[in-house]
Amino acid sequence: MKAFSVFIAIGVILVTVFWLSALAYALGAVLGDWAWISNLAILLLGFVMIIATLLTLAERKWSAMIQDRIGPNRATIDVPGLRGRAFGGLFHVATDALKMLFKEDFRPKNADPLLFNLGPILAFAPVLALFAVVPVGPQVTARIFGFSHQVGLQVSNPDFGMLWVLAIASLAVYGTSLAGWASNNKFALLGGVRASSQMISYEVALGLGLVGVMMAFSSVRLPEIIGGQATHLWGGVTNVPGLGAIDFGIPAWGILLQPIGFVVFFTAAFAETKRAPFDVPEGESEIIGYFVEYSGMKFGLFMISEFAEVVILSAITTDIFFGGWQLGFGGDAALTRALGPEHGILLGSLYATIFWIKVLVLCYVQLAIRWTFPRFRYDQIQNLGWKILLPQALANVFVTGALLLFDPSLKMLAIVGFLEIGFVLALAAKTSTDETDHAGDDAHLPADAHGQASTAALPGAAAASHH
Amino acid sequence: MAYDASKNPSGDLRERLYLPELIRGLAITTRHFLRNLFNPRDVNSEVQERKGANLVSTVSYPEEKTPYPPGYRGLHRLVPREDGKPRCVACYMCATICPAQCIYIEAGEYATQDPASESRVIEKFPTQFVIDELRCIVCGLCVDACPKDAIRMDTGLHTPSEYNRAGFVWDIPKLLQGPPVSHPSDPWSKRPSSAPPPHQHAEAHTRIGEGLVQLKLPPGEHHKRTEVTDQPVPVTRFLKD
After folding, report:
1. Would B234 be classed as within a structural domain?
2. Is B60 inside a domain boundary?
């Protein structure tokens, strides 16, 4: 019964996403060249802000489930039909927002009034502005009520594409350091310093992690990177009786071509969002951070900008490494052929729904990472940024360049990528012989045989582990 | 999965690479998440007896309550007679032995003309029987002291919360609850012969906690009482996965 209600909830979310995307396409068709207005309203204020708001609840509810708790379930609305039903804690979002709006907006006596007010604005605005270049749905010919226009779900598609992301992301550091400075509080200042040093350190790795992708697809514009990922590395058109020609193949997704780039970018972006395990600047209950003096909705802005960063990081990662809105593996050709180009809005909305599904899965991964890993120490953060991620990103750039020169068809790059992914997955799947309490994992094999099999498969790993 | 601290992690390639361990950690987290998301929560208040794949062990008080252990001394009750009046004869023994001095009794006497005192088997009764539940230390000495089995601590309840102190001072209407009890030794059931008493009397003598007599509780309160066995309670049953 519970599984049924979970599926209903997922269905409601997907239908909402689909209709909101369809609305964006329809408005774009009506507005024509002014479609960026509807995209601005629906993508930024609609999708990003709604998902970020719901993530504040998801953070609490999902962490509860991860930790075998129940989570928020006490806020209910006292009207007939809704009485006594918590809807998974949905009303806690409303109570949180109301609480923040009506709390006293307190400013310390000696705080700088201008900078103190500017802090949350400067922390929040760049985060939202990041999303302007992120494409959500493909360019389709949208027809509705006699209007017909080429519409793509992207606010703006400048030539500098991804460079805008990197440039604006580095602006967010002003918000945090200003908040720490203007509060006139030593702990807040220290928190701001920690935040700015961490964010600036990881900016280098953040940019270098993406260089490999930019080289592979020879563009910094996100729609072109998504278009590059539509090509198939291997595979081709096969004729299946009854279904016609099916174009099945392995897509050139960024994660397959650039696994190291993905890890470096994702880690660095994680540090930019200042979330666990990189939450040394501000650790909710333990570490006094840069917004300790903020109350009410100003604190809420810092909070919501953190969750908006989660959404936007997921969206950018989806676009660059997970094929954007594409189904992949030949599904796109089938989808396009099944619907036909005349159903532009339907096709675009389906693609946008696929995009948002990927984004939500990545949001879950980010939240799960927070509730899986302990916080890094400050020196570990700097070590990871400068001594591990930066050399790794640089080496990745050179290796990618060499492989692209050697084989411009990306196949060699993909083979190296597969080897890297396979190596990590094999290490992750390898169960050591002393873990006897994982009966479920080893049930099909005696522990000895399993251990020998995996060590035989990985001579290098076995040698390293016996040092 | 306990962490083996004697092992040097720097020699393990998997831990040095960090990423494989990261993936394994995420797998554990996600397994917990999915199990708790898709499986209904077992609301059995005996947490160690919960079945099912859901791992949540919360008892959602006050909708769900854990039963008290069988030896628990619950809230007092004044035991009624068959005619609904308290069995108490106002002898002051409980008030005298009470170390917290929380029992206050005022004794009354039946008039000679009173039908209740037809045979003069009951002479005294409490006009006031008040227990200050805030002072009570739940030691149970009053129950042992009572010669008439008139006060018991077998309700299995704890003192409910109140808004002021006066609410914790319980008088006869609040204390008098549960099934009526009569004993063969009661003066109003004196037998003409010396034959052994009927079986139900022997039953009534035993404690309600042993389950021989059903305790009538106020409606809406359902309490599960744990079976008492000689077996030790396996503590490891709390540990799932």
Report:
1. no
2. yes
Structure tokens at A145: 């009520």
HSE-CB at A154 with a 13 A cutoff on CA atoms is 25
Digit-coded pLDDT (tens) for A329-354: 777 777 777 777 677 788 888 889 99
SS3 breakdown of chain B: % helix, strand, coil, rounded to 5?
A: 30, 10, 60
What span, in angstroms and rounded, lies between the C-alpha atoms of A165 and A59? 25
Domain count, chain B: 2
Q: Are residues B93 and B149 in the same domain?
A: yes
CA distances, A41 to each of A21, A28, A44 (Å) = 12, 11, 6
Burial classification of residue A195, based on how many CB atoms lie within 10 Å of its CB (0-12 exposed, 13-18 middle, 19 or more buried): buried
Other C-beta atoms within 10 Å of A434: how many? 10
Q: What is the pLDDT of residues A415-449, one digit of tens each?
A: 888 888 888 888 888 765 444 444 444 334 343 44
Burial B44-63 (b: 16+ CB within 10 A, else e): ebebeebeeebbbeebeeee
pTM score of the predicted model: 0.78
One-letter amino acid of A223: P
- pLDDT band of residue A454 (cuts 50, 70, 90) is very low
Structural domain including B135 reads: 77-210
| Chain B residues bordering chain A (beta-carbon distance below 8 Å) | 1, 4, 11-14, 16-17, 19-30, 32-33, 36-41, 55-58, 60
pLDDT value at residue B230? 65
Distance CA B234, CA A132 (A): 60
Two tokens, residue A313: 């990081």
What is the value of ipTM here, to two decimals?
A: 0.83
Among partner residues A65, A368, A427, which is closest to B37 by beta-carbon distance? A65
Instruction: Give a yes or no: residue B86 inside a domain.
Output: yes
